[in-house]
Amino acid sequence: MAEAKERALKVVADNRKARFNYEIGETFEAGVALTGSEVKSLRAGNATIAESYADARNGEVWLINCNIPEYLQAGRDNHAPKRPRKLLLHKRQINKLIGAVERQGFTVVPLKFYFNGKGRAKLEIALARGKKLHDKRETLKQRSWDRERSRLLRAKG
Fold first, then answer.
1. What are the residues whose beta carbons fall under 8 Å from the beta carbon of 40, sequence distance 6 or more?
2. Are 43 and 115 spatial neighbours (Cβ–Cβ below 8 Å)?
3. pLDDT tens-digit profile of 42-62?
4. Total number of domains constituting the chain
5. Rg value, the chain, Cα
6. I need a labelling partner for 140 at 20 to 30 A (CA). Which of 6, 75, 94, 123 fits?
7. Neighbouring-strand partners of residue 86
Protein backbone atom coordinates (compact mmCIF):
# COMPACT_ATOMS: atom_id res chain seq x y z
CA MET A 1 0.00 0.00 0.00
CA ALA A 2 2.71 2.45 0.91
CA GLU A 3 4.65 3.34 -2.17
CA ALA A 4 8.40 3.61 -1.84
CA LYS A 5 9.55 7.18 -2.33
CA GLU A 6 12.11 7.53 -5.06
CA ARG A 7 14.90 9.81 -3.99
CA ALA A 8 16.28 12.03 -6.69
CA LEU A 9 19.77 11.30 -7.94
CA LYS A 10 22.33 13.73 -6.60
CA VAL A 11 24.55 14.47 -9.59
CA VAL A 12 28.08 15.37 -8.51
CA ALA A 13 29.76 15.78 -11.92
CA ASP A 14 28.39 15.79 -15.45
CA ASN A 15 30.52 15.40 -18.58
CA ARG A 16 28.65 17.66 -21.00
CA LYS A 17 31.52 17.77 -23.49
CA ALA A 18 31.29 14.01 -24.04
CA ARG A 19 27.99 14.28 -25.90
CA PHE A 20 29.52 16.89 -28.21
CA ASN A 21 32.85 15.13 -28.85
CA TYR A 22 31.56 11.54 -29.07
CA GLU A 23 28.72 9.54 -30.56
CA ILE A 24 27.34 7.85 -27.46
CA GLY A 25 26.48 4.17 -27.79
CA GLU A 26 25.50 1.79 -25.02
CA THR A 27 25.60 3.10 -21.43
CA PHE A 28 26.41 1.24 -18.22
CA GLU A 29 26.06 2.04 -14.53
CA ALA A 30 29.21 1.20 -12.59
CA GLY A 31 30.04 1.35 -8.93
CA VAL A 32 33.34 2.94 -7.94
CA ALA A 33 35.79 1.69 -5.31
CA LEU A 34 36.44 4.81 -3.20
CA THR A 35 38.11 5.67 0.08
CA GLY A 36 36.28 7.50 2.85
CA SER A 37 37.80 10.90 2.16
CA GLU A 38 36.86 10.56 -1.53
CA VAL A 39 33.23 9.93 -0.64
CA LYS A 40 33.22 12.95 1.69
CA SER A 41 34.67 15.11 -1.05
CA LEU A 42 32.08 13.83 -3.54
CA ARG A 43 29.24 14.53 -1.12
CA ALA A 44 30.53 18.11 -0.93
CA GLY A 45 30.08 18.24 -4.72
CA ASN A 46 33.73 18.21 -5.74
CA ALA A 47 34.70 16.15 -8.78
CA THR A 48 35.82 16.62 -12.37
CA ILE A 49 35.34 13.93 -15.01
CA ALA A 50 35.73 16.06 -18.16
CA GLU A 51 39.16 14.70 -19.14
CA SER A 52 38.79 11.21 -17.70
CA TYR A 53 38.32 7.87 -19.43
CA ALA A 54 38.06 4.20 -18.50
CA ASP A 55 40.77 1.67 -19.31
CA ALA A 56 40.87 -2.13 -19.07
CA ARG A 57 43.83 -3.66 -17.24
CA ASN A 58 44.17 -7.32 -16.23
CA GLY A 59 40.46 -8.05 -16.70
CA GLU A 60 39.38 -5.05 -14.62
CA VAL A 61 38.14 -1.61 -15.67
CA TRP A 62 39.78 1.45 -14.12
CA LEU A 63 38.75 5.12 -14.18
CA ILE A 64 41.79 7.16 -15.19
CA ASN A 65 42.43 10.89 -14.74
CA CYS A 66 39.30 11.62 -12.70
CA ASN A 67 39.98 14.48 -10.29
CA ILE A 68 38.40 14.22 -6.84
CA PRO A 69 40.04 16.97 -4.74
CA GLU A 70 41.31 16.23 -1.26
CA TYR A 71 38.84 16.52 1.61
CA LEU A 72 40.35 19.19 3.85
CA GLN A 73 39.13 17.73 7.16
CA ALA A 74 40.64 14.29 6.44
CA GLY A 75 44.11 15.39 7.57
CA ARG A 76 46.91 12.90 6.94
CA ASP A 77 44.52 10.12 5.84
CA ASN A 78 43.70 11.95 2.64
CA HIS A 79 43.73 10.43 -0.86
CA ALA A 80 45.64 11.25 -4.04
CA PRO A 81 43.32 13.42 -6.17
CA LYS A 82 43.98 11.78 -9.56
CA ARG A 83 44.61 8.17 -8.58
CA PRO A 84 43.15 5.39 -10.77
CA ARG A 85 39.87 4.09 -9.34
CA LYS A 86 38.47 0.62 -9.93
CA LEU A 87 35.05 0.42 -11.54
CA LEU A 88 32.74 -2.28 -10.21
CA LEU A 89 31.01 -4.07 -13.07
CA HIS A 90 29.77 -7.57 -13.83
CA LYS A 91 32.17 -9.84 -15.70
CA ARG A 92 29.91 -9.91 -18.77
CA GLN A 93 29.87 -6.09 -18.88
CA ILE A 94 33.66 -5.95 -18.52
CA ASN A 95 34.10 -8.41 -21.38
CA LYS A 96 31.72 -6.39 -23.55
CA LEU A 97 33.62 -3.17 -22.85
CA ILE A 98 37.02 -4.75 -23.49
CA GLY A 99 35.81 -6.33 -26.74
CA ALA A 100 34.35 -3.08 -28.05
CA VAL A 101 37.49 -1.12 -27.23
CA GLU A 102 39.91 -3.64 -28.73
CA ARG A 103 38.01 -4.80 -31.81
CA GLN A 104 35.71 -1.96 -32.81
CA GLY A 105 37.72 1.12 -31.81
CA PHE A 106 35.36 2.47 -29.17
CA THR A 107 36.35 4.55 -26.14
CA VAL A 108 34.85 4.17 -22.68
CA VAL A 109 33.81 7.66 -21.54
CA PRO A 110 32.28 8.66 -18.18
CA LEU A 111 29.09 10.67 -18.54
CA LYS A 112 27.86 11.33 -15.02
CA PHE A 113 29.06 10.85 -11.41
CA TYR A 114 26.14 10.65 -8.96
CA PHE A 115 24.74 9.15 -5.78
CA ASN A 116 21.85 6.74 -6.36
CA GLY A 117 18.74 6.35 -4.20
CA LYS A 118 20.59 4.18 -1.67
CA GLY A 119 23.37 6.75 -1.29
CA ARG A 120 25.97 4.77 -3.24
CA ALA A 121 28.41 6.56 -5.54
CA LYS A 122 27.79 5.49 -9.15
CA LEU A 123 29.36 6.39 -12.45
CA GLU A 124 27.47 6.30 -15.74
CA ILE A 125 29.87 5.22 -18.48
CA ALA A 126 29.27 4.77 -22.19
CA LEU A 127 30.84 3.16 -25.19
CA ALA A 128 31.57 6.07 -27.49
CA ARG A 129 33.08 6.69 -30.88
CA GLY A 130 34.85 10.00 -31.54
CA LYS A 131 33.14 12.45 -33.87
CA LYS A 132 34.94 13.97 -36.83
CA LEU A 133 35.11 17.74 -37.25
CA HIS A 134 32.32 17.82 -39.84
CA ASP A 135 30.05 15.84 -37.49
CA LYS A 136 30.64 18.39 -34.74
CA ARG A 137 29.78 21.22 -37.14
CA GLU A 138 26.59 19.42 -38.12
CA THR A 139 25.66 19.08 -34.45
CA LEU A 140 26.19 22.82 -33.91
CA LYS A 141 24.07 23.68 -36.97
CA GLN A 142 21.26 21.40 -35.83
CA ARG A 143 21.34 22.84 -32.31
CA SER A 144 21.21 26.44 -33.53
CA TRP A 145 18.38 25.62 -35.95
CA ASP A 146 16.37 23.97 -33.17
CA ARG A 147 16.89 27.04 -30.98
CA GLU A 148 15.84 29.40 -33.79
CA ARG A 149 12.78 27.27 -34.63
CA SER A 150 11.61 27.33 -31.02
CA ARG A 151 12.01 31.12 -30.95
CA LEU A 152 9.95 31.47 -34.11
CA LEU A 153 7.19 29.20 -32.80
CA ARG A 154 7.10 31.08 -29.49
CA ALA A 155 6.86 34.42 -31.29
CA LYS A 156 4.01 33.17 -33.50
CA GLY A 157 2.02 32.28 -30.49
1. 71, 73, 74
2. yes
3. 999 889 999 999 998 898 999
4. 1
5. 19
6. 123
7. 62
